[in-house]
Amino acid sequence: MEHLFIKAKNGKQNTLILFHGSGGRETDLLEVATMVDGSANILALRGDADDDGQVRFFKRQGRGHDMESLNAEGEKISGLLEHLAHEYGLDLEKAIYIGYSNGANMAAHLVFNHRIPVAGAMLMHPAYKGEVPEKAELLGKKILLTAGARDMVATAGEAYQLKQKLELKGASVDVKLTDGGHEIVSEELMEGHVWYLKVK
What we know:
- By secondary structure, this protein is α/β, with parallel strands linked by helices.
- The protein is about 35% helix and about 25% strand.
């Protein structure tokens, strides 16, 4: 799996792990990362699933998730993150996921299903339809969900459904609703920065 690593300035230990949206690449969320914390380590991944010619983190099935793809790619990414953390000397307890759309759904899957000790996640326009295992334990995890009131791809209702699932497992969840559609807007970036200051 392709990835990009940018070492933090001044030896800072915080890390932002980036998951782009459908059809994207590892550089797509660098501006978002800079707004959230311009001096953190950045580890940006490129999805490994080819879905009708588009790069994704996992394949879709209609408006839902291809669960076989989601689970297989999730296992692959979990192992990769552990490997890269060792290679680059990263403290994952000081890391957060930042994901958009398909990438946000993969990040949510990792939060629920894999014991990577990240501090939290900023999930932009998620529509997570994966399973939530009984053993999932998210106490201490801080999550920001952003959604657009005019988003017909990943609706605000789906973000609030995810909020409920996360809170039932003990996570502390904030939701930022904008007037936008499925695109990332400046309000989300500002909200992400303010939220991050309380997490790091």
